[in-house]
Amino acid sequence: MNILLLALCFATVATAARTADMSKPPAVGPIRSVQLPPRVEWKLANGLSVVLVSDRRAPLVAASLAVQGGESALHPEDAGLAAALAELLTDGTASKSSKQIADEAELFGGSLSAEATPDSFVVRSSALSDKAGAMFSLLSEVVRAPSFPADEVALRKANMKEELAASRAESDFLASVAFYKKVFAGHPYAVTAPTDESIERITRDRVAAAHKRIFTPRGSLLLLVGDIGLGQAKAAAEEHFGSWKGGSPAADAPPVPAHKTERTVYLLDRPKSSQVSYFLGNLAAREDNPAYFDLLVLNGVLGGSFSSRLVRDIRETKGYTYTIGSRLEHRRTGSLCRIRTPVRTEAAGDALSAILGHLKDVRDSDPTAEEISQAKAYLAGSFARRMETQEGLAEAILHQKLLRLPADFYDTYVDRVSAVTPASARKAAQTFLRPDEMTVVAVGDAAKIRDALAKFTKKPVVSVNVDGD
Amino acid sequence: MRTAVLAAACALLLATPARADRIDFSSFTLPNGLRVLVSRDASVPVVATAMIVDVGGRHEAPGRSGFAHLFEHMMFEGSAHVPKGGFDRILESYGGDNNASTHADFTFYYEVLPSNALAVALWLDADRIGALSVTHEAVKNQIEVVKEEKRMRVDNEPYGSALYVDVGSHSFVNWQNAHPVIGSFADLDAASLADVRSFFDAYYSPDNITMAIVGDVDPAEVQSQVAAYFGPIKSKPRPAAPDTAEPVPAGERTISLKDQHAKLPALAVSWKGMPERGTAAHRALVLLGKALFSGKSSRLYQSLVKESRTAVSVDGALGFPVSDWDEYKAPGLFGAFVVHKRDKAPSSVKEPIVSEIARVAAAGLTAAELERVKVKFRSDWVRGRQTRLGRAARLLQGALLDGDAEAANRELALFMAVSGDDIRRAAAAYLKPDAAVWFTVTAGGGE
Q: Which residues of A touch B44 (CB under 8 A)?
């Protein structure tokens, strides 16, 4: 009998060791910290900062060149000039046509492209590591000696007009233009899209002058990530950028405006629209604010993931929309939190009321421990996945450098996410989410939604046009 | 049925991450036949887990087109311990991502997530492989979802019918090769709960699946976790592999198609009877496809778009028109698709294609062209292996389609060894003018 019992016990233990409990998701341990590979930094005599991250996992090298002063360094009347300049960098140099530039990039097994952001221009290139020399050479040529051929400028202007017309057919685009115009009122960050008039103002001379003024080694950053060692990186930086000369870097954008004192609702009439596109938000904490990670996790609970309150309630339970989310966005001198959703026209008032209700709830009471732990797991996991490739790593380091975040910002990211508690998240909500002072933009059929919107503001609803004015 | 072998993991694993030109991995097989490949890379705490199932469109029975793909959808509809919608939601709550795809010769499923949560992915996959919920409502619901997908991608998309349906159905003779993976509405509507259950029973057996786990994991622990979750699942017998043999081409043909959504006419061409995977001729045709049709430096882009200005876009490859060359077990098609201007006759597109192929069949590629396509191939190859998911996919394609996961490691050197003469011979042998099927697509979409 005893022997039999013993045998049964043994069999149970053996089975338990070999088969899993299928009834619920397994318990898992905490996510391991993500350590970014070591960085080496130095400066050339002309003031260009160089950052090297040797990452030998794949025989690829990525080089990004970032200069200070992007869209915000140009006059608001010149909206679109920065984007045009970025595109035109790779459309011709003294010795190469746009096609030759594209062909050369193909021959080094990679890519070359440029982008204008609110605070900087970034030119990105990548290559097979045994072809890195050709990449550095081409990157240097387009950054330092673009020729802005007149026919390419004309083509770019024509395409920008087409693109603007196409974008204006989308109510989300119209809502975003008006939202930034109002939330950053009067600040250079307020302008996020060109107008027909500003595109018309673009000339070859204006593009070339902006390039000459802004593209300078001082204050700029060359980021090298990938299969390249320190000696080769130093030699390449010196050879291709050492003789680059220029003036002072563009100044930072001014500080962002103070918080609003009351909620304002803006309305862009889009007759017969079956949906209302909402953008709403307010200025919030920069990533170097001590309470930033509390706000980040709180945002995860509110609307930052599929399991968040806004998605579960507004989309799943109430069915007002197919898509809704909240996010934190960052510029060099200011950040904001923003909620975006297109909702059915009939639900315009109920949906906005429900969204504002959720904003009140996260300020009034602590999220549950489960919500917080789910938001933390999602943020830490998504962050680890972003760091998987050279591109992800390079983008993180660029962001840290361009926004002047602490050097260990990403090395401590997972730990700081993990340290957030329900109480600290709620405190961040109370400080940074300000539903009574939010800028609310609605794009939809004004005749059907104006009365519903009027209930959410003490002042009259303000009408805006396609440029957000 | 496969003989069950429990092999120990070979201890070749390196703590330092492997460079992407070689994927170091170990493997084991559970008693139920599930084969598992494990590759360690601890550079970030992320793991990809993927499954390749040896069933695709070519395994479907006549009258049951679209079943492999319909079934892929069913795999997200809930299982014994995971409610409908729970699969995506649970994975996301750990910061994970997932998706699946159905091909002519296989079905592929993956999850990418923080490595601490690997057990969650294994639990989710084991629950759906071992105890999928197949309900009448879910089947009917997913038939509608798949039909909507077909409307969106095929029926309402310019050139969608030509590319996803007509090229295959006119190029091949054997129904197993000729019918589209997306299926027909009639076959989908006829699908019953019993049909879907029997498809699951026939093909979703552990010994018909290979799994790859790539990332920040301990291989010994992975083996015990996989054994715990998948070990209890029983294997089931299944039908013989499909006969994909094709008769030889019956002379040059031209098929006329009309497309009510297209605004511009198009010309397509296909050749069947391609060489087997892993042969020198197969590799030569992969590179030739890139030299002729891929990118702005390619011969026919330069000839048709830039010089004669006959065409607005040029596309083509081995694997045409639906998948990439590396996504077939049995040979697919070599072909091209050119959208051309309304005032240009199809012959003004056809002639340059015919003459360029004749030039290659006579003289091969230039040294510069060969260098360019090899750089392009190597760059795509390296980039495809940057992620854990990319490496998992390559290992699984090697295991299923080449019969050996190690094929994923041999491949690059073999491609870099392709000579101009290999390409000349392959063009002459496999792209004969009298074996081509041409498709003229008339635009019915108005301006």
A: 34, 384, 387-388
